[in-house]
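Example for tutorial group B:
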């Protein structure tokens, strides 16, 4: 094992190595996208290490039935695709009397697909999911529900069912510019209860902040502990050929035509139909790139609030703050609430140029008090000149905070956890003025980042099948598993007498 390998191994197993793991955990895995591939490798590694873990699984699509069915008995798998009734049943709304949060808000996380369904259909289908998840978690005796993400209505409903039952929710969160991962306990990226600044995490935070201010880290960069490892051994990707994926897509559509949504065809064509995608997105990108008022940093207004656009529909907004899915609503809110001697500078993310309708950018430029910044200008340069940076859950808020600049988040997520504030609509005018007048002190920034450093694990969390397979590197998945065990023990140490209440 080289030095870099030891960094990963030692940093996530030191605490666990002192424990005898007297407790057994049963984890229900909820797989979104291609995350069941990662789950399969976690199960295999845990079995080899004889860890006190047992598993059951909720498969919301049939894509990975085979690879999960090889390691988990069929009775321990909820195949949602087969279990859902053909016609939504729904039922008496009284079954939702103990539902945590708001089911209506959770349904607001819906993206493109199923948008043409009626409100009643969506509600009844949501109740069907809720009943399935709740019954399965109870019958299987799960102690925890581990989500790959929490960004769709079905995922939010699963997390709500687990919370209602008193189960631990484990949701890995990519730490963006900080790099690494922590385990959130809900859909708002809330850090675990054991997060607390200490001497070690304060030192790490101070070192990171100093390094970031000299050279900002790109969001979603590999943790340096993983990037430094020269051994790039990767685990099996379980990726069929494009032809086999196309056949599988057709079979799935025929298996459950009642669930199949025609919008998925367009999404698949844009994802895999390279010529079509290049023509459509390339034309849109060229048009959108010409929509701006500010061409360089020197032309920025003297006083302005900075709002970098989010990609929508996207889980970053849909999940924690569906009220702002319509970003024009948010832009109006900001320009009406900001001081009259400020402008609102809006900037498109370069990668979103090919997605956003050109009409959106044109309409944006017609709004009084709004100026559009050229997408090629680095966001960090705009942040440094802004009186305030505002996002719903965007990385720009975290970057502004790390730079010691005024920053504000309007939705729950990692940026809100770092800044320790989520602004409300009712008091936004006062909060904007307060944030501009009182930027965070270096001491406060260090303390907040130190809390996050105390729960940071040096592994990368993402979907498989990206170039180079960073997620499926052996060292990365080993780090994931060790971090999971450490999290479970730290969580248990806070509540040694915790018992589950099962309804």
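The residue assignment follows.
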């Amino acid at each position: 094992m080289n030095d870099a390998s030891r960094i990963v191994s030692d940093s996530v197993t030191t605490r666990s190595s002192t424990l005898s793991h007297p407790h057994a955990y049963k984890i229900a895995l909820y797989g979104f996208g291609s995350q069941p591939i990662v789950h399969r490798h976690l199960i295999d590694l845990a079995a080899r290490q004889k860890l006190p873990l047992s598993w059951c699984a909720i498969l919301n699509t049939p894509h990975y039935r085979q690879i999960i069915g090889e390691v988990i008995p069929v009775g321990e798998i909820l195949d949602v695709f087969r279990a859902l009734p053909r016609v939504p049943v729904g039922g008496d709304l009284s079954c939702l009397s103990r539902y945590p949060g708001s089911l209506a808000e959770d349904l607001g996380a819906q993206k493109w697909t199923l948008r043409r369904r009626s409100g009643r259909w969506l509600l009844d289908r949501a109740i069907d999911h809720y009943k399935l998840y709740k019954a399965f978690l109870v019958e299987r005796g799960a102690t925890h529900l581990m989500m790959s993400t929490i960004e769709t209505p079905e995922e939010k409903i699963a997390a709500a069912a687990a919370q209602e039952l008193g189960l631990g929710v484990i949701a890995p969160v990519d730490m963006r510019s900080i790099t690494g991962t922590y385990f959130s306990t809900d859909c708002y990226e809330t850090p675990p209860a054991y997060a607390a600044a200490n001497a070690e995490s304060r030192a790490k935070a101070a070192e990171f902040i100093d390094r970031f201010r000299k050279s900002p880290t790109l969001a979603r960069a590999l943790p340096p502990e993983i990037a430094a490892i020269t051994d790039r051994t990767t685990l099996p990707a379980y990726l069929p050929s494009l032809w086999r994926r196309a056949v599988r897509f057709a079979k799935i559509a025929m298996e459950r035509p009642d669930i199949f949504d025609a919008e998925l065809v367009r999404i698949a064509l844009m994802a895999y139909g390279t010529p079509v995608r290049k023509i459509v997105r390339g034309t849109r990108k060229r048009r959108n790139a010409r929509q701006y008022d500010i061409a360089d940093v020197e032309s920025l207004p003297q006083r302005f609030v900075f709002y970098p656009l989010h990609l929508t529909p996207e889980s970053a907004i849909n999940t924690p703050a569906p009220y702002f899915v319509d970003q024009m609503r948010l832009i109006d809110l900001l320009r009406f609430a900001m001081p009259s001697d400020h402008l609102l500078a809006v900037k498109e993310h370069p990668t979103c140029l090919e997605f956003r309708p050109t009409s959106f950018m044109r309409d944006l430029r017609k709004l009084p008090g709004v100026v559009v910044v050229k997408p090629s200008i680095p966001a960090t340069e705009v942040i440094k000149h802004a009186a305030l940076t505002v996002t719903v859950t965007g990385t720009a808020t975290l970057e502004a905070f790390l730079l010691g600049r005024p920053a504000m988040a309007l939705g729950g997520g990692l940026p809100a956890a770092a800044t320790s504030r989520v602004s409300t609509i009712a008091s936004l005018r006062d909060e904007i003025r307060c944030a501009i007048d009182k930027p965070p002190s270096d001491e406060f920034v260090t303390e907040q980042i130190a809390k996050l450093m105390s729960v940071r694990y040096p592994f990368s969390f993402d979907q498989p099948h990206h170039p180079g397979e960073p997620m499926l590197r052996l060292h990365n998945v080993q780090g994931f598993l060790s971090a999971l065990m450490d999290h479970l023990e730290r969580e248990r140490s806070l509540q040694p007498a915790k018992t589950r209440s099962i309804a």
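Residues 406 and 439 are 5 Å apart (CA to CA). Compare this with the pattern of hydrophobic and polar residues in the output above.
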